[in-house]
Design brief:
binds thymidine-5'-diphosphate, Rossmann fold, binds nicotinamide-adenine-dinucleotide, three-stranded mixed beta sheet, UDP-galactose 4-epimerase, domain 1, seven-stranded parallel beta sheet
Length: 348
Amino acid sequence: MKLLVTGGCGFIGSNFILEMLAEYPDLYIVNLDLLTYAGNFENLQDTIPYGDRHRFVRGDIADRELVDSLMCNGIDAVVNFAAESHVDRSIIDASAFVRTNVLGTQVLLDACRRHGVGRFVQVSTDEVYGSLGPDGAFTECHPLAPNSPYSATKAAADLLVRSYHKTYGIDAVITRCSNNYGPYQFPEKLIPLMITNAMVDAPLPVYGDGLNVRDWIHVRDHCRAVDLVLRKGCAGSVYNVGANSEYPNIEIVRYILSRLGKPESLIRFVKDRPGHDRRYAMDATLIREELGWEPEADFESGLDQTICWYIEHETWWRRVKSGEYLTYYDTWYTERLGGKEAGIGRGE
Ligand code: NAD
Ligand code: TYD
């Protein structure tokens, strides 16, 4: 099988490629990634032993010519991870989100149509459903009600995928997963940001009252779900993916501090994110019952392993927390953290 994976140098895409190469000896992967600030070829160091079963192409999923040239070489299926993925950055400027997440998806779908690609998997998110009250969980039937520019572009892409299936008969499937954690996550997201800031005794910026709830899943469990949907999912279906691991943000931050032996005095409650969704929770009954998927990682040991990974990979995250990251950190956190204090979180 020849698979086109987009965004394979990002957090989830790189974990997916490594898992897939190890699992399927006959699999050949073309990895199309633009290497934006979030893409890092270092994430794929461990693919070296797989030789030419992994081919990297630097490029944009919204580049029609390039995508066409890749697809005309006999691609059997596409898994689309490529995206602008951070809510806070989408609040600062949504332009790249619209281009990559919406236009990029359309370009890929058009190319699948032209070249008769067997299957298209769109990797989407629980955030397209909007926010929940204190009870209940999102099922696949929940209406789409995105609240951030990021989630609006992901919802738009999901609707395009749906329409290409209905209109042109493209064999497309959508996965909607909850918040991931694990190795190689870019340290702008909650868990790696808090771990790496705590490691250098920098302040930990917690939005609002810290009681927003996210439903956490280990990245490897998400990757196994995407693989199952790729191989066995029913064309035109949406599959929610989640591991029933709901925690308020503040509990996670306190846990990380205790594991690292750092004081809670590092916590700063800062101005909230505008439009901040209060709670996400996923009902993953469909993928469990139809495809037999089960999450394997339990949250506490998964988080412990993730903390160890960041301790062991300090060179990796110190390199990532430089250059463009510093500009972003200044823009988003300096005022929130009262000026000078933000400097410490930049790694100074
Ligand atoms: P990430 O930001 O770590 O990686 C995104 C990757 O896409 C990067 O390697 C980047 O270089 C690449 N990319 C960006 N624009 C591109 C373009 N125009 N052309 C080609 N490549 C481009 O993101 P992630 O956390 O790994 O998320 C991957 C996917 O999973 C996204 O679609 C995201 O919406 C979805 N998702 C993420 C989570 C989560 O918790 N991180 C949860 C559910 C769904
Ligand atoms: P994030 O990792 O950005 O994922 P998402 O917003 O896509 O769910 O944030 C997870 C939660 O952590 C969310 O409720 C916002 C909160 N958060 C903070 O409190 N402080 C921070 O600095 C960040 C990045 C997130």
